[in-house]
Write a structure and sequence with these properties.
Purple Acid Phosphatase, chain A, domain 2, globular, 31% helix, 512 residues, alpha/beta, Metallo-depent_PP-like, 5-stranded mixed β-sheet, 14 strands
């Protein structure tokens, strides 16, 4: 979240009529994939019912104009995305009450579902802009089933075994989009917690981005530092040392934080194993190898936003290197006793200066305020420039307080227990996930959860093929299924209370 945030919610709603350009056709998964909300939905108000009847009428008109063969193409699995449920024995849902399902890893390391078929599954959980609130961070991590806490754990015990990394799946990944510092008193405990979780889960499972407020503190810009935060370090001098290249926070930033990460929504090594003809996971079942053309979907995470003016000139690794160089200069200046007070450190290059500018990845807000068609174009250009196969971008920085904002296609509202909204039919390119988690803003606690499955299924394109499958025969095809869920909790609500989730997107596609 930036130094002077603006509430996107009202303005964003006015831009909902923009044209979203995207590829692929999607259809919703069945209820078995969606999972139940934590609270039952109340009857929709009159306006909502009218919208539902209008939507149903339009659907009936559309379906009446389609041939039976076309309907079979849409829902039978021959189009890129169609209707289905997750594989049996896999994690069927990431809802608030989910629990892990057992799988048996064969000799080649690829997990299997309860029916013995190879089945990959991963959740990628994203959290934005904690801003000094350890309590809220722990609540979100528990709500998303990433940690467990013993009864002895406390806000001052974030590095002991009482906080345990215990995700639903071994491949789950946690991503922070930055801004853990400022506006709250718990800076030390929060960075210790990230360090603890990273030590338990590994660097690949806990990814932490730098936010503009991390860099502001490195530059000595303390406008948003609280007195309680300074006191927790033992005074200003001790805090300045900690946030230098010789201090523990500064070294932690340099060693374990990046400007941006692109994360695979499935384990790429296990995907490659399934593409091998020698894989015992597929050979023993008579299943063809996963097509070699398949690559797991990939999502980019950054604090502010990657503008194409940067991605057209630099790879992501180069951008991370430029960011690291700039941060090192700032932290070295602090170690030398130079008080920058927000000014750029000695030796700053033009590229580093641009990165800290208005269109730089720490500060860029165009994905929130540009018109829909322009934001979509910019996002596509930025993703194409990365040349990494990125299909979506996720960022914090610009707060919306009540719920996330998704664009391309647009979704400026969110489902609630009393006002359900259908999920998108295509995964949104742009995802703004800062909801003002800090008590300084009193927004809702939130997390965005990407969940992806990959498994073989018997073809069911026609009734005849379905009948053959029932006899234990038929041909196999590889299927990828995806959901995106926003998990929310009212600020200050009791454990297990004030929680709800919003199914943002769900879809299924056959891999060819």
């Amino acid at each position: 979240m930036s130094a002077s945030p603006s509430d996107l919610t009202q303005g964003a709603r006015k831009r909902a009529n923009g044209a979203a350009s995207h590829t692929g056709q999607y259809a919703p998964l069945s209820d078995g994939a969606s999972g139940a909300r934590s609270q039952p939905a109340a009857p929709a108000p009159l306006a909502g019912k009218i919208r539902i009847f209008v939507t149903l009428g339009l659907l009936l008109l559309t379906f009446s104009s389609l041939s039976a063969g076309r309907l079979r193409d849409i829902f039978g699995g021959t189009t890129p995305w169609s209707k289905a449920t997750p594989p049996s024995g896999s994690h069927a849902s990431s809802s608030l009450s989910s629990s892990p399902a057992a799988g048996t890893p064969p000799a080649d390391g690829v997990p299997t579902s309860e029916d013995g078929l190879p089945s990959l599954h991963r959740r990628v959980v994203a959290i934005a802009d904690i801003h000094g609130s350890l309590t809220n961070l722990l609540t979100i991590l528990s709500m998303t089933h990433l940690i467990t806490q013993s009864s002895s754990s406390s806000s001052s015990a974030t590095s002991d075994p009482s906080v345990v990394w215990s995700p639903l799946g071994a491949d789950d990944v946690l991503v922070s989009t930055g801004d853990n510092v400022d506006r709250g008193d718990d800076t030390i405990q929060i960075y210790k917690l990230w360090e603890n979780l990273r030590g338990q889960a590994g660097e690949e499972r806990v990814r932490t981005c730098l936010g503009n407020h991390e860099v502001m503190n490195a530059l000595g810009d303390w406008r948003y530092v609280t007195p309680g935060d300074i006191k927790s370090f033992g005074g200003e001098k001790a805090r300045r040392h900690a946030m230098s290249s010789q201090g523990w926070v500064g070294r932690n930033w340099l060693d374990h934080y990046n400007l941006s990460y692109s994360v695979d929504l499935l384990d790429a090594a296990k995907v490659r194993e399934l593409q091998s003809s020698s894989s015992s996971s597929v050979r023993e079942k008579g299943i063809p190898p996963l097509p070699s053309s398949y690559a797991p979907p990939r999502t980019n995470f950054v604090h502010g936003g990657l503008h194409p003016s940067f991605t057209s000139r630099h790879s992501l690794s180069e951008l991370n290197a430029i960011s690291h160089s700039f941060l090192t200069k700032a932290l070295d200046a602090a170690a030398q006793g130079i008080e920058l007070r927000g000014y750029l450190p000695p030796g700053t290059t033009q590229e580093e200066m641009a990165m800290w500018g208005e269109k730089g990845p720490y500060w860029y807000r165009g994905y929130s305020y540009e018109k829909e068609v322009d934001a979509c174009r910019i996002a596509k250009e930025a993703m194409e420039g990365l040349k990494e196969g990125v299909g979506q971008i996720v960022m914090g920085h610009t707060p919306t307080f009540e719920h996330f904002v998704h664009r391309c296609p647009p979704r400026y509202e969110a489902s609630t227990p009393t006002r359900p909204i259908p999920p998108l039919s295509s995964p949104p390119l742009i995802n703004l996930i800062d909801t003002g988690i800090s008590p300084a803003y009193s927004g809702v606690l939130s997390s965005l959860v990407f969940e992806t499955w990959l498994h073989p299924e018997k073809k069911r394109n026609t009734p005849e093929e379905a009948a053959v499958e029932e006899e234990g025969e038929g041909t196999w095809e590889w299927v990828e299924k995806r959901t995106m869920r926003a998990l929310y909790k009212e600020q200050g609500s009791a454990p297990g209370k004030g929680e709800w989730e919003d199914l943002v997107f769900e879809g299924r596609r056959v891999i060819v």
